[in-house]
Amino acid sequence: MPEAPGPAPAALPARGTLLAFDFGLARIGVAVGELETRRASALLTLHGEASAPRFAAIAKLLDEWRPVGLVVGMPSHLDGTPHEMTARCRRFANQLHGRFGLPVLECDERLSSAAADAALAEAGTHDWRARKQVLDAVAAQIILQHFLDTHGHAKP
Q1: SS3 letters for 56-79?
Q2: Which residue positions does the secretion signal occupy?
């Protein structure tokens, strides 16, 4: 997994909230999770391509949830080579760190959208339009759950 632009996962406190982002050009999925319980939940999807409204919405989420850190999914091909979106996701992670001063950690997001789509279909969301509305938030949840399962502190 690539190096994170902020502190290492060990630098996170044992307790606190994390927000995770599944970055895309048209949508950003957002999930929330807790370090203590090590559970992630889909939160919402930010729509639109303009940077200013996206960061304004993220600022509101940070104010509401008061996270101790942020996680950004980093795409790569199955063989681990960088994806076309890797540089854009890394730039987004750096912007989050620069704007908000929180630790921003990267997490491998390979196949998270495919896993989210499969989970939604299995849960009974068969209409593709309905799945599309929540797909990115569920992908962010999968990214954050993977991060919580593979990094940081031992389960209480």
Answers
A1: HHHHHHHHHHCCCEEEEEECECCC
A2: none
Report the alpha-carbon distance of residue 104 to residue 9 in Å, rounded: 9
C-alpha to C-alpha distance for 74 and 23, rounded to whole angstroms: 9
Domain ranges in the chain are: 14-150
What sign does the dihedral 112-57-17-43 (CA atoms) show? negative
3-state secondary structure of 55: helix
Phi and psi torsions of 37, nearest 5°: -85, -20
The partner residues of 17 in beta bridges, in order of sequence, read 34
Residue 2's pLDDT is 38
Has residue 28 got a pLDDT over 80? yes
Contacts with 43 (C-beta within 8 Å, 6 or more apart), sequence order:
19, 30, 31, 32, 61, 137, 140, 141
Residues 45-93 pLDDT 10s: 999 888 999 999 999 999 999 999 999 999 887 787 887 889 999 999 9
pLDDT in tens, 116-156: 556 655 666 556 565 566 678 988 999 999 999 887 554 44
Q: Does domain 14-150 have CATH number 3.30.420.140?
A: yes
